[in-house]
Specification:
The chain has about 290 residues and is an alpha/beta fold. The chain has helices at about 5-15, 35-50, 65-80, 100-110, 135-155, 155-160, 170-175, 180-185, 185-190, 205-210, 225-235, 255-265, 270-280; strands spanning about 20-25, 55, 60, 85-90, 90, 95, 115-120, 165, 215, 240.
Length: about 290
């Protein structure tokens, strides 16, 4: 729809909601070929120039694109000055713990780029989501939960301890499932310790990586504060950043403004979510209160 292409309207929304700066990503460039990735990257940089101080571009480079994609990552870091890269939670039949992704994780860690994981727009397995728009409403969130578990248990953060992964949509509602997920990390109890695939665990407790290597954003739930408050029971406020998924699930300026107001009502936690945590993620100087 037209709002996806109207940056002037995007700025008007930001002004009404009191948003200083927004990180720009393009669905067309997530896990795309090199030409499309470069087009998205150059267009994002142009938006930065056309609206000084209001937009920050994210790199687009296919994590399975081989050496050319890794070179594009480095260009985005050194020439374009982008702080992070966007990928999808699964792609081309593969999942983020596959060995084929390892060069990508290593290069992101080397460059100091955070990795923003957006739900896959096309899921690898769709049979169980064959009606009622379930692939979008819950399938994408399920993909984010799986991506989080895969990254941690596969040892991606153990191999790359400086790597930061920004998981969208509160990790697909991960907080509500953490009690169950923690239980299934006890491989002896569940009888999977000797299973090559199911018995694999990381070097530290599961929650260590949530608190040291991962960041979660508030998009994906249409501004519903219940989802935010529920997440805060399990995930420290210091690991949550503000996002709206505008102009997709939220398309009205007033809805974004009200979301900001409700978050601010949470006090120090809300202020951290709205600004301080994002400054750390984007490596921006802290601003005076």
């Amino acid at each position: 729809h037209w709002m996806l292409f109207d940056l002037d309207e995007h700025i008007r929304m930001m002004d009404e909601a009191g948003i200083d700066v927004a990180l720009l990503t393009s669905a067309a460039g997530m896990c795309a070929d090199l030409d499309k990735s470069r087009l998205c990257n150059e267009t994002a940089k142009k938006a930065e120039r056309d609206y000084p101080g209001r937009f920050i571009g994210a790199a687009h480079a296919n994590p399975l694109g081989g050496t050319p994609a890794l070179r594009e990552l480095a260009r985005c870091k050194h020439e374009l000055g982008f702080p992070g890269v966007v990928i999808t939670s699964e792609t081309n039949g593969g999942y983020l713990d596959a060995a084929e992704f390892e060069p990508f994780w290593a290069e992101c860690a080397r460059l100091g780029l955070f990795v923003f994981v957006h739900p896959a727009l096309k899921l690898n397995q769709t049979q169980q989501f064959d009606g009622y728009d379930m692939a979008r409403s819950v399938g994408r969130e399920f993909s984010l939960v799986m991506a989080t578990i895969r990254l941690i248990n596969a040892g991606v953060f153990d191999r790359h301890p400086t790597l930061t992964v920004h998981m969208s949509h509160l990790g697909g509602g991960l907080a509500a499932l953490l009690g169950r997920i923690r239980s299934y990390q006890d491989k002896d109890f569940w009888g999977t310790a000797d299973n090559t695939r199911h018995g694999k665990t990381p070097q530290r407790e599961f929650d260590h990586y949530l608190r040291h290597n991962m960041v979660f954003d508030t998009a994906g739930f249409c501004g519903a504060m219940g989802a935010i408050k529920g997440a805060l029971i399990e995930i420290p406020a210091s690991r949550i950043v503000f996002a709206t998924d505008y102009p997709q699930e939220i398309r009205e300026r007033a809805a974004v403004r009200d979301f900001v107001t409700e978050l601010r009502a949470l006090g120090k936690d809300g202020e951290a979510i709205l600004s301080g945590n994002a400054d750390k993620l984007l490596k921006r100087p802290a601003r005076a209160a």
